[in-house]
Structures
1.
Amino acid sequence: MDLWNHVLDILSPDEPIQKKMADYYNPKRDRRLSDPEVFKFQPLRMSFEAVDSTTFTEVLYPKSIYDIIDFFVRECIKREIRFRICKHCNQFFALTGHINTEYCDRPFDSTGRTCKEIGALRLWEKKKADTPALKAYSKAYKKRFAWIKYGKMTKEAFYEWAETAREKRELCIKGGITLEEFRAWLDD
């Protein structure tokens, strides 16, 4: 974890990983290999061999689970893979796409929803709770969407209303109209 926090965590200083590694193991910075927090790389039993009729690759022959961890850490450093702590489950995850991703793709609940899905939903709910215009819009949107099911409104009319409602919502959020005016418009 110490190596992750100082070298591979995206929130550590924005420097090349090789420089961070050199700083991490620099004896002048009180990082001694005798320190129990410092990750100690061990010699690994590796081979370069055919794994099928067309592929040659490195093959690890681990003696213990530590060898697998050691190999994984080396690969992350070689490939300069950065990690972040998920804002939902508080676990590290690899940043393989956008550097500003805040939630991982781990399944979180029994329905198979991921932290990314739940995190986005919670963020929207929090934003909606903090913004009365969003709350009013959401309530009116759900009401009118249900009207489609009951035949009170056509899909075309709903989508036309929704477009206008979004414009009015943004106008209300920016202060162009008052919340009362926006709510009155939604109720019409």
2.
Amino acid sequence: MPKHDSRLSERASSRRELKAVFNPSERRERAFLVGVEFRTRGRATPGNSALTAGAQAARDHATSIAPSRRIDSPDFSSEESLDELRSLASSAGAEIAGEFMQHRDRPDPATLIGKGKLEEIAGASASVSADVILFDHDLSPSQQRNIERVVDTRVIDRTQLILDIFAKHARTREGQLQVELAQLEYMLPRLAGRGIEMSQLGGGIGTRGPGETQLETDRRKIYRRIRHVKQQIENVRRIRAQQRQRRESIPVATVALVGYTNAGKSTLFNALTNASVLASSRMFATLDPTLRSAELPSKRKIVLSDTVGFIRHLPHTLVSAFRATLEEVQRATLILQVSDASSPISAEQDAQVETVLKELEANEKPRLRVMNKIDLLSPKQRESLRDDSQTIHVSAAKGIGLTTLLDRIDAVLEEDRPTRVRLRIPQKEGKTLAMLEARARIYSRKYTGGLVELEADAPESLLRRMREWVVE
């Protein structure tokens, strides 16, 4: 085939990469869930053996609002983990057909959970007519192939399920590129033995792109596509850096919202900026970064950034692929870490957020903890809540505590801090007076002899333009 025909074919394939396969009129896939707990590993995960100070504070908070619950580890129990897998499966569009929990001393190198248990799962999943088996654990390529031979059903691990949800929710070209890169890097070592499900003609959870009919026999094509996608993402990073440079030339602070998926970041973002970003109870409803301006009580402007939610064991390929997006977190002046105050596992979720922030090298940035969804707590629990210098309790959905949050942000940010001044401005300077009205907090105003005498809190950037009228 001539080179130009090959490029045309590749571009045509690229346009089909991330198309959704679920249609409301089609039958939802039936998923059989498999949870796994290894006793020898314990509940702690590598690199997460101790809580940071922030996560410890969240654990103390969780204990105070749910005293009957014992929190003895930053990681999830097997039941909590399986419950999260249910939410992930629902977000992918699956119908839960059945569940199975396996407790073992250590993982089986060939099949993760042992051939005997696999045969039990094969029978149980067949009895409920499951279309796919979802493992709440990462599987090596050989484990996935060995399991599929026994169960004779499509098998998806946790990472592939998360990638699939990302592919479903990516809307902008930037988001689609980032998801495609993560999918390609995940699929590459799994080509051997993968057949029609790698094709664009395949359908169902775990098959949304970026496959092509001959992926399993043409690794060079995948490598070429990876290089192309990385180049496009690099262009995105360059454009984003230019935009950020323009923003940073103006003294406007950037505040990034981070937190566990479904903690209410987008709802809070909308409440603070009057935006209309999609706010959904489904996991990873927000993938594409959104920037909007908001006004603080001092009338300073800030830029708020809504980011993708974190999750435990967030696939490394996703963290790498979304680095262009997550740079907004790295460069932010202040981080608002949003937590679900109504969740009994908010401490564990916050510990996972800490892990990702460390990977992004953003864990040392100034931070405020925002405990959201307090409207879902009982009246007695709400009465016991106390804000402090680092923690604010809010309900973004009900508008509770937002004024306190804005006051706290205003107090923390040093950029373009307001100064109390007295000004004497000629009344004919209408443009200057209007600017002062819009950007300063005015406490008194007096008209004398064609002049307006004012006392106000005004930002430094504004005062530099009004030096001649400042009264010493």
3.
Amino acid sequence: MNVEELTYRVKQENEHILRIKAELSKVIVGQENMINSLLMGIFTDGHILLEGVPGLAKTTAVKSLAEMMDLSFKRIQFTPDLLPADLIGTQIYIPKDGDFVTRKGPIFSNIILADEINRAPSKVQSALLEAMEEKQVTIGGETYFLDRPFLVLATQNPIDQEGTYQIPEAQADRFMFKIKLSYPTREEEKEIVKKMSVYNKISLEKIINKEIINTIKNLIEQIYIDDKLQEYIINIIFATREGEKIGLEGLIEYGASPRASINLTKAAKAKAFLSSRGYVTPADVKNVAKDILRHRIKISYEAEAENIKVEDVIDRIFNKIAIP
């Protein structure tokens, strides 16, 4: 399939996305970046780490998407007393039968909202992150495959740090995106108040199903990315590891892993799809780069002392790397 045919197919399938966004606007105001990231995550099997204060429609957005895509959804409130069995399930002994029965946990859903993931101890975080990576869990010595598609949307509150367990950098790397949510604008908040101040149960239309999701996933994999653009992505990732070569001496403690190269390529293709194109542009790469890289680059103490944020470092990298 050439690029023209691919673009035609992409435009056809993108009609579903336009309908989803129109339907979602009934319950969500603004938050376009979060919605696009959720869609890209679902269509590329990429998990998302959301950082933002409570009340920014995270639960509403992901629950609504699950409803419109005919997918199962579970919300898990992470707490310090949560156990791995509460997440993945356990075996229960039935005395009258003299045997064990497996009771599956909430992880067996298409979309999981792991609310305040940093409130759960490391054992629970590890159980979730292992499931994310392997797409399977082991209960009582038996392996169970998770439902597909499988997306974990994990949230953490950037303000309240008391009683929290920070996600280790190596495990945070398993998330495709780290999205930072901001407060709505004044106009958006007016619209939110207007829509939500009156109780009105809104039912959302089912727009796509697993079959269409798989069709879109296969189409995104075929989206054309030029060799020069692939080289551009590699140059960006290597710049995070070799900062001294582009004038970033002492700012980066360690750079992005090979997962970043893979995820940046996948996300750029998904962004091209959302833009109704069958090919990737440098703008697609730049558009998703911060969300892909911000949790994969560890800036140095010297950079922190100079009040340089990881987003500033990413901007400097893009300023230094030549666009093909």
4.
Amino acid sequence: MRQEGGAERVFLVGLEYEQRAGRRSEPVSAAARAARDAAAPAPSRPSREPQFSAEESLAELRELATSAGGEVAGEFLQHRDRPDPATLIGRGKLEEIAGAAASAGAELIIFDHDLSPSQQRNLEHALGRRVVDRTQLILDIFARHARTREGQLQVELAQLQYLLPRLAGRGVEMSQLGGGIGTRGPGETQLETDRRKIYRRIRHVQQQLENVRRIRAQQRQRRESVPVATVALVGYTNAGKSTLFNALTRAGVLASSKMFATLDPTIRGVTLPSRRRVLLSDTVGFLRNLPHTLVSAFRATLEEVQRAALVLQVSDATSHLRQEQEAQVEKVLRELEADKKPRLRVVNKVDLLPAKERDHLRDDDHTVHVSALRGQGLGALLDRIDQVLAEDPLRRVRLRVPQSEGKALALLEAGARVYARHYRDGMVELEVQAPESVVRKVARFVVK
């Protein structure tokens, strides 16, 4: 049994289904897969997006379980031709998993796959332990990390929508009394099992979230009345978005190596080299097969991505799964209808690469390499943002401002880049580069 206050011991189960020419193919390593694909003739149809192997997916599940406060006691990976409709993995493997989990002292079994309500009940009955799937694990992590009222409402809505079809014939997975991963109820009390009450609670939460969206829309309208562009940080979870956000804004947002450390949205102002002000928005990290209920529930938060003038797509330079992770980010951006937004790729954590690899890195019009932790490349990133942003465009103008116009001179000093300044006959002659909004305020002093 778990000691009071100790980590819950969990056993992980990964699965891979392969049907090829009527028989199961042997598992293939990522390197072998890449070599095979390179040697194969070009396909006549569009190539599929990169996929995680079963081993890579299980490694990610391990990180998720650790982020949920669990202690991984063991793992099991099965390759099958097709899923078993009753138990997903087949009854022949159930005894093997039950014995391995018992010998490891595991209290909870986590499947790296979505389980139907009947599959979850059948597995719990056969294994004699609590069973949760990948979606329920992610919901649990979100419940742990939500701090603001808005974040808590969004998590509660996603949990209610997930639990609703699991009310009938509920098993131990519905018990809210024992505690542990996957049992944190969406409300403050034990979840009522009456469907009518659940539906009523869902409607109430949805109404509260609509109020949040309305307030957020009003705040956005006030921001948009002033020409200040929003730049949204997106990327796979644990890519270093919050560390980059802190480096650019000095906001002090929690930065952690655990998955989904950032859940609640944060917006801070940043001054670009041109003296333009922009708003930088930190968002929740994306994940492979992010549950649709979460994408829907967090739409209020992710609206900042939809309305952003520029999207900074942050990736981890050290991850050997970077290509697969970026494909998943693209998938979520498409679901948010934000994949056509102007985008700048930011490759983070380059300080962790070997020196030879760092020497070959080159920035271009679409990619900037940085180390948010060490502050490397941040100046180049801000310059590139300045060049890419189309909102409140920069203009280079000449002005003749009377020395008595202290307010106009102060505005130019604070909001423009001054290239030349001369004093003549009580006038200040200036050559500046300034945002259009600043130029309009001093238009009467512009020299045609």
